[in-house]
Amino acid sequence: MDDKSVNPVVKSALELGPIVIFFAAYLWLKDTIFTIGGREYEGFIVVTAGFIPLLILSTLALWKLTGKLSRMQLATVVLVVIFGGLSVWLNDDRFFKMKPTMIYLLFAGVLGVGLLRGQSYLRLVMEELMPLAPEGWMILTRRLAAFFAGLALLNEVIWRTMSTDSWVYFKTFGLTAALFAFFIAQNKLFETYSTERGDDGEG
Fold first, then answer.
1. Residues 91-97: contacts with CB within 8 Å, 24+ apart?
2. Of 20, 77, 97, 183, whose CB neighbour count within 10 A is largest?
3. SS3 of 43, please?
């Protein structure tokens, strides 16, 4: 099935729904202690346990509807299962809080490897969305790799020095806003290196 034939509202709901539900459930259950199998679990751990299958199901639904998943989506699901699962199994919220760090370090590392090889791996997955000249792709990839590395560092600072409430707000709203702000800030680059004008983006 062509991804374009999927209702955009349904697609957005599947992509953002798990995060919204996680946030709402956390606000509802954050001060509740659950006793399961004779062991006490904070609300954050219980919400994390529910988020894992929810994300898996929403990702499977996206795959069923669109017939494809991006490498970023797959990497995110794998890391959520690993680090979220460790948090639930060990009853330790630190593992789930480290998950964004691992995701952004992975993305920065993959893009960095491509740059060392003189290639833009970003171009391979986003060329259809943003037609840019090769030089533009290299510049954008360098910037995005540095940006992801910065987000990884910022996540570490937030979860290690601030409350769980602060981290949840940062994870739900801060990271998303930062990504939007990053791409908006690249508007000049998009204008300069766009190939939709019929030139090669140079000069």
1. 91/39, 91/41, 91/45, 93/42, 93/44, 93/45, 93/48, 93/164, 94/159, 96/44, 96/48, 97/155, 97/159, 97/164, 97/167
2. 97
3. helix
What tens digit of pLDDT does each residue of 33-62 get?
999 888 999 999 999 999 999 999 999 998
* 10-22 residue pLDDT tens: 888 888 889 999 9
Backbone angles phi, psi at 36, to 5 degrees: -125, 120
Residue 120 Cα distances to 38, 73, 114, 129, 197, angstroms: 52, 19, 6, 15, 21
Task: Give the span between the Cα atoms of 198 and 184, in whole angstroms.
Answer: 23
Query: Would you state the pLDDT for residue 56?
Result: 95
CB 94 within 8 A of CB 101: no
pTM beyond cutoff 0.85: no
Domain ranges of the chain: 1-90, 93-203
Q: What are phi and psi of 67, to 5 degrees?
A: 80, 5
- Those residues whose C-beta lies under 8 Å from the C-beta of residue 97, and which sit 6 or more positions away, are 155, 159, 164, 167
